[in-house]
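Example 3.
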Amino acid sequence: MIKFDAQNSGIETDVTSEEVSEKLKKIEARGQGFYKIVDDSVDEILEYASSVEGKYDDIVVLGIGGSALGTICLQQALKHLHKPKKLHVLDNIDPTFLRELDDVVDYSRTLIIVISKSGGTPETLSQYFYFREKCENFVFITGPTGLLRETGDKEGIKMFEVPENVGGRFSVLTVVGLLPAALIGIDILALLKGAQEMRDKFLNENPNENIPYQIATLQYLHGKEGRNMTVMMPYSQRLIRFTDWYRQLLAESIGKTPEVGLTPVSALGVTDQHSQSQLYMDGPDDKFFIMIKVEDLGPEVMIPGDEVDYLKGVSFNKLMHTEQKGTTDALTHNKKPNVTLNVPKVDEYNLGALFMLFEGATAFLGEFYGINAFDQPGVELSKKLTKELLTGSEA
Amino acid sequence: MIKFDAQNSGIETDVTSEEVSEKLKKIEARGQGFYKIVDDSVDEILEYASSVEGKYDDIVVLGIGGSALGTICLQQALKHLHKPKKLHVLDNIDPTFLRELDDVVDYSRTLIIVISKSGGTPETLSQYFYFREKCENFVFITGPTGLLRETGDKEGIKMFEVPENVGGRFSVLTVVGLLPAALIGIDILALLKGAQEMRDKFLNENPNENIPYQIATLQYLHGKEGRNMTVMMPYSQRLIRFTDWYRQLLAESIGKTPEVGLTPVSALGVTDQHSQSQLYMDGPDDKFFIMIKVEDLGPEVMIPGDEVDYLKGVSFNKLMHTEQKGTTDALTHNKKPNVTLNVPKVDEYNLGALFMLFEGATAFLGEFYGINAFDQPGVELSKKLTKELLTGSEA
C-alpha cells in the first residue's frame, strides 16, 4: 500500500481525531457518492466487455474534462508505453483532430463511447452528430435524463448510467472510467480494490492513518502562507497523465473565490528536472510539492559502459530513484516544503488507491475552506456567451 | 503574420523606443545567439537529411529538456494527429520507457540522434550507452568538447555542433530542433523564415511593432501586482506541446531568486475549459493569460444534425473560435487580464515566428528583472546530491 512521508513538509500539524471526524460528517452531509464506490455496475461492465471481445480493433471515447482525463491516465499508466493506442480519447473539437481519425480506424471495427453526464455537453454532442454518420457502433454513458438519454432510448443504443451523486471530475472509478478501461483489458476489480482500501483510510478518524486528510491539511496551511500552487511530480513515465487528472480535480473543486483557489502544476520526474527545477529551487517560495516515488519501475535495466565513473554498475531504476532523492533533498535544502508518496508500483491496485487518495484529499480541502468542492458555477458565463455568439442573440 | 491583441490586458503601458533600445543593448551585451538564427548549418542539415532519405523507418531522439521539448512540439504541430509517430523522443530514463521501445522499432532501420550540448548530461549518456548495444546508426548533436564529442571522434560518428552561444532552451531553431524536424519532412526553411520575420520585430525599437517587448512588459507589470503565473492557452490540438516548450523557457530563464520567478501554466482550448476554467474565472487573481487563436484550423468540418438549435449550420471550426471568444470574454468580464495572439495557421512559418516571439519576450523579461535569463545555477545542487548518492561519497 502507498506510504506517506511528510518529514520535509515544513509545517508541524497537530490534528485530533475529532477534527477529522467533524470534516467527515460535513462531507457526508453533501451527499456525494465518490467514496461509496458503486460496484453494482461492475458486473454489467464486465459482462458487456466480454460480450464484445474481439469485435473491435479500436475504441473511441467522445468526452471532455472528467469524461476523458481518468481514461487517458488509465491507458497511459497501464498499457504499453510505445505501441499505438487502441483507445482514442477525443477530448477536443479541433476539426483536424476529428477529421484525421478517419486515417487510422476502420469504423466497422470501432466502438464509440459517448460520455456526458448531463447529456448536453455541446462539444460531445457535436462529436456524436459527426461520428454517427461514419460509424454504427455506439455506447452511451450518461445520466437518467437529457438529450443523450432520449436519443439512446429512441435508437436502442446500449447505455450505462453515471451515478447521480458523483460529479464528472470524481467519476473515474464509476462506469465513466471503468468501461473504457475494461474494454482495453485493464483489471477493474483490482482498481476498485485499491480504491476501497484507500477509502477506508479516508474514512479513518485517526489522522495518522488518514493520508488524504494529512495532505489536505498541508495544502491548506501552505495556501494560507501564500503558497498558491501545488506541484505534483511523479517519477514514472506511466504517471505522466495522472497529474493531468489531478489538475482538473484540484482546480475545479477548490478554485471558487478570489480568496480560495490553489493552482495545480503538473511535472514529471526526471524529465522536468531539466525544465522546471531551476524555478522550483531558486524561484519564489510559492509552491507546495507532492513528489511521487514508484518503488518498482519494472525489470531492472542496467546502464552499460564504463566511461562515466558514477554510472558504473548502476541501473536506470536506481538512477531514477537516486535523482528523485537528489531533487527532493535539494528542495528541502532550499527550504521548499515537500512530501513524498511512496507507491509500490504502477498497477491497477495502486492506481485505484491514488485516485481515491486525491479525491478524498480534495473533499477534505473543500471543508477546510468551507466551500462546496463539488460544483462549478464559474464555467456558466463562458458557456452562455458562446451560445449567444453562435445564435447572434448577444446583439 | 501573427497579430497581437492587448485590449483586455488590464494595464496601460506607455513605452518609449528608448526603453526598447536600452533593453536590446543589454541583451546584445549578453552575447547570446538565439536571435542570430544560425542558418549556415542549414545546408549541412538538408544535405544529410537527403542523404539518409528512405533509409530509416524510425528516428529516436535521446535528449532531455531543451534537447527534447522543441522537437516534440514540432512533430505534434506539423504531423498527423493520430498516426503513430515516426519520431520517438526519449526524454526520460524510466527503464520501462526505454525497454519497451524494442517492441516498436527495428534497430537496423532506426536512426538514433543523441543530443547534449555539454556532452555530459547523465540521462542522455546513459541512454546512449544502452542503445549503442542495440543499434549501429547514430548522429550526435553536441558542443565542441565533452564526452560525446570525444566518443564521436573516436567512433567516426557523424556530428553536428550546437552553437556555443545558444542555450538548450533557446535552441529549437538550431540543429537541435532542425535536424530531427528535417528528418521527418518538416520544411525547416519556412520555419526559419517565420523566425527571421519575428526576429525583425524583436529587434524593432518601435514598441508598437515589437510584440515580444509588449508581452514581456505585461508579464513584468502583472508579476509586480502579484500575478505570479502566466497561463498560455492555445486553441488548437496542434499546439498542445507548444506550451510545454514555453514552460521550460519561462521557468528556467526567469525563475532565479525568491523575488523573481513566474510560473508557466499550460492549458489547451477547448479541452481545459472543462478542467481549469472554474479556477481561472472564479479563483484568485494570480494569473496573466495569453490566449492563442488559430484562424485557419484546416478544412471546415460541419456539425451535422438538427437536435440542438444553436449548433445548426455551425462547423467545428466556428465552434472552436466561438468558444475561444466566449472564454476570453468571460475572463475579461471577471477582470482577469488577458491578451490574444492571432495566428493565421499552424504551419512551419508561423511556428518559427511563435518560437522566436517567446524567446524574444523571455530575453526582454530577464532585462526587466535585471537577471541573467540564460543560465540555470539552481539545478547544480540536485545534480551534485545525485552523484554523491550514487557513489556513496555523501557519507
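The mean pLDDT of chain A is 96. Residues 348-369 of chain A form the longest helix (22 residues).
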